[in-house]
Amino acid sequence: MPPTSTGTFQPLRHRTGSIRERLHAYTKSTLGAGGSYNEAVALPSGESCAAWVAVHAIDFYNDVSTIWAVMSSDPYLNSFRPGEGFPSGVEYRWSDEPGDAVSVSAPIYIEKVLAWIAEQINDQSKFPDDDNEAEALRVFQTPQFAALCGQIFRRLFRVYGIIYSSFFGTLEALDMAPHLNTGFKHFMFFCTEFGLLPEREIEPLEVLVKPIRKKYYAAKQGATVPGR
User: Fold this and answer.
1) Exposed, middle or buried, 60 (CB in 10 Å: 0-12/13-18/19+)?
2) Torsion of CA 129, 130, 133, 137, to 10 degrees
């Protein structure tokens, strides 16, 4: 079964006046004003940590989806068989319902992850985006929401892993590698700041993750790291 994306992508928006829109704007203004990634990922004073994570789940989804849409219509993606295209030593399987996961190709896995995340975010009972800030915060602060966000971030990390492992050369040819690298650095700084990724998930991409986390910790300590 080939990937189903048409190569177009409409980013998920934050409703004007909502807590999601306010926190999204804070991140944009911090980076736009020349702030560091450490400053951009740090929880703003007086804001909800759960809401901060929720907003970034959406923003990182948008970023990864934009990258994937650029290359998702490439016929090369159809050449992968089930179990192929994953980082060395791992295979990410998919299950639409609780139960036995099935073997799929890496491009199919990415399509399914992005469709699943979009479905969660578009569900107002899970990711509220209205003027009732108190109700949104109530949802964001539940254990169920914390578990959902944890799953979203783990799956987004896996998508990054697949892209770096199997499609980095394609993105280089499309002049998209700098965008990928910048987005992944921001993603890893955020995940490190809030402890969102288990170490077992990180192991397949340790060679990429280790220098990024080194820069994160050095910056937290006020050190100067080349390439910041």
Assistant:
1) buried
2) -30
Q: What is the pLDDT of residues 43-83, one digit of tens each?
A: 999 999 999 999 999 999 999 999 999 888 888 899 999 99
**What number of other Cβ atoms are within 10 A of residue 136's Cβ?**
22
pTM of the model: 0.87
Which is nearest to 121 in space by CA: 218, 54, 193, 221? 54
Distance CA 168, CA 160 (A): 10
Residue 133 token pair: 């800030």
Residue indicated by tokens 């050190």 = 223
- Give dist(CA 183, CA 164) in Å, integer: 12
Cβ atoms of 209 and 158 closer than 8 Å: no
